[in-house]
Amino acid sequence: MANKKRIQVNYPRRRFIRTILRVLANMAIAVVTKIEVIGRENLPAKGPFMIIGNHFSFVDPVFVMAKLPYWVEFVGGTLNPGAPKLLAFIPKLWGILNVYRGSSSRDALKSAQSVLAQDGVLCIFPEGGNWATVLRPARPGAPFLMHQMKVPILPIGFIGLDKIFQNFNLLKPKTVKMVIGKPFGPLGADITGRPSREDMDEMGHEMMKQIAPLISPEQRGHYSEDAAVREAAKGTEVWPWDTKREGEVDRWREKAI
């Protein structure tokens, strides 16, 4: 019975605490950045749909919760080695659907399915972590959800969020952009039965190709049209949890950005 309760997520939920967090997040964003949100006309009127975006900084989810008019449910790692430990309370208060990296995380996937089944809005960062600042291939989780639920997908590009705290000066906040693309999909509608790893990789590549035009050309990594940018991105696709489990990966940068 306890396991069933954990898998079923009532949507929407935690509206009181999430309203407070959204207000605080918008206040913080206004203090430390000059933000431009582009493409609001592409926002769907309602769910169900999935939000995807590039993941170069631990603050990416904060901008989603603050700037989009939905009760967004997030799928994310139980731990974030790229974020300051001081801010670990934010995802706990918001109540993300925890993925235990290095394992199958079936409960998180089932919880995500229950959100979409209730016409909810789900956000997942397909790269699976923010250990690099160039676009990398998607992990299998997001494509698997897309195949299972067959809902539209809203791509978002984040520009400059990875540089907010570099040479930080409160009197000179960094200019950042949040670019909202046009919804696409569903993907995988022509796949019958359980998708193969090749099927999921193909869907994952399509997702990242939709994100690439929304971010800076020099950060399009594996999805750049520039061969030099693709070459420079080699190696960033290696997932830190390929041979480890959640909690076994230390901070991947000396200083979180």
How would you describe this protein?
Helices cover 31% and strands 15% of the residues. It is an alpha/beta fold. The protein has one domain (2-232): Glycerol-3-phosphate (1)-acyltransferase (3-Layer(aba) Sandwich), CATH 3.40.1130. The chain has a 7-stranded mixed β-sheet, sandwiched between helices. α5 packs parallel to α6 (141-149) and α6 (141-149) crosses α7. The chain is globular and about 55 Å long. The model is unreliable at 1-6 and 253-257 (pLDDT under 50).
Structure in a nutshell:
By secondary structure, the protein is an alpha/beta fold. Helix content is 31%, strand content 15%.
Spell out the blueprint of helices and strands.
Layout: H1 2-7, H2 15-32, E1 33-38, E2 49-53, H3 60-67, E3 72-77, H4 89-94, E4 97-99, H5 106-117, E5 121-124, H6 141-149, E6 153-159, E7 174-180, H7 197-211, H8 227-232
Parallel strand pairs: 1-7, 2-5, 2-6, 3-4, 3-5
Antiparallel strand pairs: 6-7
